[in-house]
Design brief:
- This protein is an alpha/beta fold.
- The chain folds into two domains: 85 residues, 2-Layer Sandwich (Nucleotidyltransferase, domain 5); 120 residues, ATPase, nucleotide binding domain (Nucleotidyltransferase, domain 5, 2-Layer Sandwich).
- It starts with a strand and ends with a helix.
- 32% of the residues are buried.
């Protein structure tokens, strides 16, 4: 079975894929000092708790935090007797082209989302990922990654507002009942929520105008369901978009190795 690992700046997600479905998905905070042994103790405990007796034979990793990759590779080698496939490394091929400026490094999570989006929805997509950063990725008609937009993440914006203004508290993001708040928390929540609704709508509209053709907008990431509540921002949302992309990339590389 496949262990798919998506390591972001804030959280790391582990999913077990049996070839047809995800048996389980777990999330932990991203800490670059966490060792392979610690990962294994945490993971094996959760597997035992959920009575999952899967034999991990393959591991694939997507990481926006380079320092954690070493220990994840040690985890795969020491405890699962396999070499981890790492998205972005030369030995991990992608089933789509990457059309960006020469020398540009594209975040592996954005490439994985592109692969997943094209596999599930076809081309002419805008993939909006609500992570530590809010990213917009353009998927061409033939599935190629053609660039995108990076904006500050929702929680990052709230944290910056709290830290920079002494009188403003830390608040959780939620959809406010009214636009005009009558207390500080409601004012902040309205500003962030409706501000990001406007940001998403405007950026997507400008991408569509620049491309001059219809494009579907797909959302993913932790806060995607919250913004899915607003007015027709997205055509669909997928909680497991990145993990699905990892399974597609793994299957593509497995097919290539078997054909050579």
């Amino acid at each position: 079975m496949l262990l798919a690992i998506d390591c972001g700046n804030t959280n790391t997600v582990f999913s077990i894929w049996d070839g047809e479905r995800f048996l389980a998905t777990w999330r932990t905070s991203t800490e670059h000092q966490r060792t392979a042994d610690q990962y294994y103790v945490w993971l094996s405990t959760l597997m035992a708790f959920q009575k999952i007796e899967a034999e991990i034979t393959d591991v694939i990793v997507s990481s926006t935090v380079p320092r954690v990759v070493f220990n994840l590779r040690v985890l795969a080698d020491r405890y699962f007797n396999t070499r981890a496939m790492v998205v972005g490394k030369p030995e991990c091929a992608l089933p789509v082209d990457v059309r960006v400026d020469l020398g540009t490094n594209v975040g592996p999570d954005r490439l994985v989302n592109t692969v997943a989006g094209y596999d599930l929805y076809g081309g002419d997509l805008i993939v909006v990922d609500f992570g530590t950063a809010t990213t917009f990725d353009v998927v061409a008609q033939d599935g190629a990654y053609e660039g995108g937009v990076i904006a500050p993440g929702v929680n990052l914006s709230l944290e910056a507002l709290h830290q920079a203004a002494a009188a403003l508290p830390h608040v959780d993001i939620t959809k406010p009942q009214r636009v005009v708040g009558t207390n500080t928390v409601a004012c902040m929540q309205s500003g962030v929520f409706w501000g990001y609704v406007g940001l998403v709508r405007e950026i997507c509209a400008r991408i569509k105008a620049e491309r001059d053709r219809p494009m579907r907008v797909i959302s993913t990431g932790g806060l995607a369901p919250l913004f899915q509540q607003s007015e027709d921002l997205f055509d669909d949302w997928r909680e497991d978009l990145t993990m699905h992309g990892l399974t597609v990339i793994h299957a593509y590389n497995l097919g290539r190795s078997q054909s050579t």
